[in-house]
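ENTRY TYPE: paired fold submission
RECORD: A
CONTENT: sequence, then structure tokens
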Amino acid sequence: MIMDTLAALALATEPPHPTELKKDRIKKHDKIILPVMYRNVFGIALYQILVIISLLYFAPMMFDYADHYSYF
């Protein structure tokens, strides 16, 4: 936490280099989230949902754990 804070302060208080100011800026019509990013986000979310649901239903059988909430 301390190391991150000090680095952020150093970067925030230092003025930008002149070559950085001359770079092309983002225009209003530029997309921030690309289609590849959408595909990655939804793919990872689907994977995590499938893992959570499968663990919810099959973990008692897989780990030999019996409780009164088990559906099998």
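RECORD: B
CONTENT: sequence, then structure tokens
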Amino acid sequence: MEKARAHVYISGRVQGVFFRAWTEDEAVKRGLTGWVRNLADGRVEALFEGDREAVEDMVKACWRGPHGAKVTNVEVRWEPFKGEFKDFRIVYGRW
């Protein structure tokens, strides 16, 4: 399978609605690695790596988010696959 890497910025009501925990669960279900974190400007940032089909499906899922979220935009930057992560995790604190 072809590998892919997507750097994603999710806007809307995405903080305070368990978006990071939902993202971690969904990424793990799809066998993806990477991370997710809150940004100081109210967005959620995530980096997904894995099989292209699974990464594309995760990006689509980000438009939905968990119950209580209201996603208004998902900005995706496709990057070269690096394979630098062993798992998917939540990064706590705002950078």
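NOTES ON RECORD B: Strands lie at 3-13, 33-38, 44-51, 70-79, 88-90. The longest strand covers residues 3-13.
STATUS: closed
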